[in-house]
Design brief:
- The protein has 156 residues and is an alpha+beta fold.
- It has one domain: Nuclear Transport Factor 2, Chain: A.
- Helices cover 31% and strands 38% of the residues.
- A six-stranded mixed sheet has the order 2-1-6-5-4-3.
- 19% of the residues are buried.
Length: 156
């Protein structure tokens, strides 16, 4: 009997070694939305961008245009990624997260946009701004339920 138990010990060790670590099984926090936002934006992937939003999300663009719903947010970014944002790169220059409830967070991230060109094809100066996100924790992770993108500038 003891020999039989000892034969099972290596199998038990292998089982334990293959269990995921606690950090691997933890749900990513709301700050991961910024990484996903930047990745989708820089890959010009409207579908991936849209997946960051709840079905009934609200989004306000830098132009002050309010878009309602994931499908329309995705469609608007599809247009942008194939036209005036087709060669741009977006980088975060700072992120803050404030949990206002265990399943609701306010996320701010400052950004810099480079690579945009004007109507003549000439390089535009880099733009800077801030995105404000209200994120909710859903069954499939954190999602953007509302957000606004705002250009920032230094007053003259």
């Amino acid at each position: 009997m003891i020999k039989s138990i000892w034969r099972l010990v290596p199998l038990g060790v292998l089982f334990l070694l293959n269990l995921p670590t606690s950090s691997a099984t933890q749900t990513l926090g709301p700050d991961a939305l910024v990484d996903g936002f930047l990745r989708a934006f820089n890959m010009h992937d409207a579908k991936a961008f849209g997946s960051l939003f709840t079905e009934d999300a609200d989004w306000v663009s830098v132009a002050g245009i309010r878009v309602k719903g994931r499908a329309d947010i995705q469609a608007e970014h599809e247009k942008a990624f194939t036209t005036f944002f087709k060669s741009v790169t977006l980088a975060s220059t700072g992120t803050t997260v404030r949990l206002v409830h265990p399943d609701v967070a306010v996320v701010h991230f400052n950004w810099e946009l480079t690579g945009q060109t004007n109507e003549k094809g000439e390089a535009s100066a880099p733009r800077r701004g801030i995105v404000t996100i209200v994120a909710t924790k859903e069954a499939n992770g954190w999602r953007i339920t509302a957000g606004q993108n705002t250009n920032t500038f230094v007053p003259p």
